[in-house]
Write a structure and sequence with these properties.
The protein has helices at about 5-20, 30-40, 60-70, 75-85, and strands at about 110-115, 125-130, 135-140, 145-150, 155-160, 165, 170-175, 180-185, 190-195. By secondary structure, the protein is of the alpha+beta class. It has one domain (about 5-195): Jelly Rolls (Sandwich). A five-stranded antiparallel sheet has the order 1-2-9-4-7, with helices on one face. A four-stranded antiparallel sheet has the order 3-8-5-6, with no helix packed on it. A hairpin with a 5-residue loop joins β5 (about 155-160) and β6 (about 165). The structure holds fe (ii) ion (FE2).
Length: about 200
């Protein structure tokens, strides 16, 4: 079985470091985080059959990186590690995007990093990325798996239908199972990594 690509390993280590850096602020998320990164010590199917693809929205990546590089450590390092694997990702739209009114369809992009369609396929962990163009709202959604986002570039975030809250580079957003959530880019594009524990 082939080993894990060094760039992917560096990204996984960097996302773990980004989460650990905020462990004291988000204790409720740490059980899931430790499960994820313990599981990730075993390598899944790295025979990635995904075909790299970009969407027009990916033109906002540089601007999002510019914001992320201004963030606290270890976010600049995480941004570098992400930028190194980004050319290998198959960017796509959210599956239900065509049903969303307004400009969302052509102004967002998602990619799976770990999971089906990503660089390493496995059944226990799903890691991906969302990019949202300036002034665009990512629609309210929910899902059974618990989820942890790492915010790379700033934006507004909603949880449990409460008012939007500003999140800065390096902040975490922990969504318990099935809680409603959404995010909104302001003048800068919003870039965030998400991790889900799907093994139950
Ligand atoms: Fe989500």
């Amino acid at each position: 079985m082939p080993g894990r690509d060094k760039k992917l390993q560096r990204f996984i280590d960097a996302i773990e470091a980004g989460i650990q850096a905020r462990a004291a602020d988000f204790p409720d998320a740490m059980l899931m985080a430790s499960r994820i990164f313990l599981a990730m010590k075993d390598i899944g199917d790295v025979d990635g059959k995904n075909t790299p693809a970009r969407l027009d929205t990916c033109g906002h990546l540089e601007s999002a990186y510019h914001q992320a590089y201004k963030g606290p450590d270890p976010i600049p390092g995480l941004t570098d590690a992400f930028a190194a694997i980004e050319p290998a990702l198959a960017w796509n739209r959210r599956p239900e995007a065509a049903q969303v009114a307004g400009d969302f369809y052509n102004n967002h992009a998602n990619a799976i990093i770990v999971g089906k369609g990503g660089l390493e396929v496995r059944q226990d962990v799903l890691i991906g990325v969302s990019l949202v163009a300036p002034e665009i709202t990512y629609p309210r959604h929910h899902h059974p798996p618990e989820e942890l986002y790492v915010v790379l570039s700033p934006g507004e975030w909603m949880q449990d239908d409460k008012p939007m809250v500003a999140k800065r580079s390096g902040d975490l957003v922990h969504n318990p199972p099935n809680v409603w959530h959404s995010m909104q880019a302001r003048e800068a594009p919003l870039l965030a990594i998400w991790c889900l524990w799907i093994n139950e």
